[in-house]
Amino acid sequence: MTEPDEMIDRLEELIDARDASGASALLEALPAVEQSRFIDRLDDDTQEDLMMLVTPEQAASLLEKMPEAQAEDILDGLAPERAADIMEELDSDAVADLLGTLEDDEAEAILHEMEPEEAADARELLAYDEDTAGGLMRSEFLAYPLDATVGSVTEDMRSNAETYTDYDVQYAYIVDADERPVGVLRLRDLLLSTPATPVTKIMLPRPLVVHHAMELDELAQLFDDKGFVGLPVVDDEKKLVGVVMRKSVREAAADDVAEDFLKVSGLGGREELRSMPLVVRSRRRLSWLSINILLNVLAASVIAAYQDTLAQVIALAVFLPIISDMSGCSGSQAVAVSIRELALGLVRPVEMMRVLGKEMALGCINGLALGALLAVVALLWKGNPWLGAVVGGALMVNTIVAVSLGGLIPLALKRFDFDPALASGPILTTVTDMCGFFFVLSLATMLLPHLV
Amino acid sequence: MTEPDEMIDRLEELIDARDASGASALLEALPAVEQSRFIDRLDDDTQEDLMMLVTPEQAASLLEKMPEAQAEDILDGLAPERAADIMEELDSDAVADLLGTLEDDEAEAILHEMEPEEAADARELLAYDEDTAGGLMRSEFLAYPLDATVGSVTEDMRSNAETYTDYDVQYAYIVDADERPVGVLRLRDLLLSTPATPVTKIMLPRPLVVHHAMELDELAQLFDDKGFVGLPVVDDEKKLVGVVMRKSVREAAADDVAEDFLKVSGLGGREELRSMPLVVRSRRRLSWLSINILLNVLAASVIAAYQDTLAQVIALAVFLPIISDMSGCSGSQAVAVSIRELALGLVRPVEMMRVLGKEMALGCINGLALGALLAVVALLWKGNPWLGAVVGGALMVNTIVAVSLGGLIPLALKRFDFDPALASGPILTTVTDMCGFFFVLSLATMLLPHLV
């Protein structure tokens, strides 16, 4: 047993002995990811005990550092009263993010136990779509009226320093009588001005604001274009309702890439941790595998239709899985390029002809290379050039089909608002398998006299 | 032709007519990702013309917003003198990033043309490993001596406001006579103090510093643990040499996830854009495909060894690609979970027994479900329960093998310092194909009397 594993046992003992300060001291000595890993190793009951044992502040800080799936799992198991106490220690956007991962009735039970004001804040944020400015913003921000001065603002910041530290303040906003943002104050400008200066004199007027429904893509572009650290978010009446931070947008965008990875790998984009219950993990993976096996049976039915040919040239059976796998690989490369180009905004879904042209050209070169290679293998093995021509030719043609389709499928799915990362793989492999089996077996049937 | 495409034509005309202000006006009216897409659509010569036409500042700002692969491609085509002019408009870390993507002799040619001082800065940064604090830091920062006062610092900031705006200043560092950082000044503390205050009074003493060789993983953890926006980087003598920003660390970490995606998809982790030359794209994709086809031939040789059995039960040929594909899918899910858990630090490479236990349990459930499904398909099709037992049993056993291996391979690769995202897929599919083919065909050989 390695040293850290002994420390996990030690943590378990401390929790079992209800030693709150011992358990927190052990955890606090660890870096964040090790904290998450240690907690991940405890069984569900012990995790719950730990969350009851430490202070709500400590529990909140532990939850905040965990991968979302892990935090969700733990919150799930906690009594709503305790979960509410912990939620009250977190930023409004963190509360909304965590409650958003739970089932509606579980989130409601926790909200019910929270301070009415904080629950109302969280409910408001929860009402926004996850990947919009409203869903990404925090409702804590600094706003001052038009008649404020540098002195009054500095005075307010000084006297509320405690509260504002948590706000991660970079700007303050100047709002008119209708709570509409009319200017932005930068900290550095406050620094360089005398107390009597009216804020209207040093604020940047007509600030850029974003509507709460602005989508993640557009926000990410905006932050890329301009150097802002945060942007004010307004509602339909143009009232200031929150601030969306560059950091939150970046994190959400990075999560999207990670999600694509989980989707392409057949995990439906949801994070799986091995500490989750076996049935949950098994069910999630099976939901995708069971669709896939049916698609596989469909593709294999093409082979079944050519059993007579196969029976006469049994060597073909050796090449069918090769052609299926190689076409899948060639196609996946093209899928990945399209998904990346879509994510980077370098291709638009309507540009199908451009992608088709580019991929067909590449398909011809790679198809020729791979087809020739496979033909040589077949020739060396059986000494029959016709067999080489059949399997090599089929692989060549199918490579062109696979890369063209692989390039186009993500664009087509995106155009009709389906998720390219989720659906491209199964569609691609089913179609390329069917085509590949058809090419090799129909070609073989035509050339049967030369093959037997 | 859609409207934006007409605008690309218009851009091309403006460039051909050498209309610098027209071309910049058109580009500047676009959001960043559209700028990159427009430039991506121009042919290589026109891209080069554009970079010569606009000012170096404008060219720098265009390059900075592009995906790295695109910027590399454009820099590649520019005369070193022009490239050097453009580089001089960028932050030291951006210069190092861009030059780092070029071949050594190309980067050297550009450095040779740059102002000696800026070239020296870039060379220094280039000497550091890419994913370390040194490689991620910028060499622009604010440092003041121990005897500075709030007044002298504010005065310096005020008079150099122009230069410092580009530094993205959040902190200033206080250094001793040996240039070692001894304190951090926060902007907000400057704001709340009188000019006569010595900086030593308001600085945060004994600042956390990181050594230039600290790796990305560790940096990401550090920024996750603490709320810093930036951290001072020191050399072997503990001298302050740069500042690594949270932003750069986050970006590098997000790039790593994107790279994993490109590796798993058989693109070797390098970004491919469809605007790259056909031969480059084809060669890069083929380098992986040609390894893969050899592994496929190796796996298929198992089938070749059982030709006699296949010839007698030709229906088996229909199931071979299904078993190969389904095992691959089950295994990929487990690979993805391991790669994610490794990236999140939730599993360590030595925990192989834990992963094996978790995956074998899951493999039994999913193997049973998928095996039963395939057995039913075989039974319905041929009416022979023995055939169902052979293909269903083989898929069941092979699913257990595939998920166990899929979970373990990334850990084993990581342990011996290979890249899990790059090598897990090919190793997994080759082994599971060989096992799957062996299970179904050897089982069929044993039960041959019941199958014919």
UniProtKB/TrEMBL annotation, chains A, B:
It is found in: Cell membrane; Membrane. Keywords: CBS domain, Cell membrane, Magnesium, Membrane, Metal-binding, Transmembrane, Transmembrane helix, Transport. The keyword Repeat does not apply. It is a multi-pass membrane protein. SUPFAM superfamilies: CBS-domain pair, MgtE membrane domain-like, MgtE N-terminal domain-like. The chain crosses the membrane at residues 286-307, 313-339, 360-381, 387-413, 425-448. GO terms for molecular function: magnesium ion transmembrane transporter activity; metal ion binding. The keyword Transferase does not apply. Residues 137-202, 203-259 form the CBS domain. GO terms for cellular component: plasma membrane. Its main location: membrane. Acts as a magnesium transporter. Homodimer. Belongs to the SLC41A transporter family. This is Magnesium transporter MgtE. The gene is mgtE.
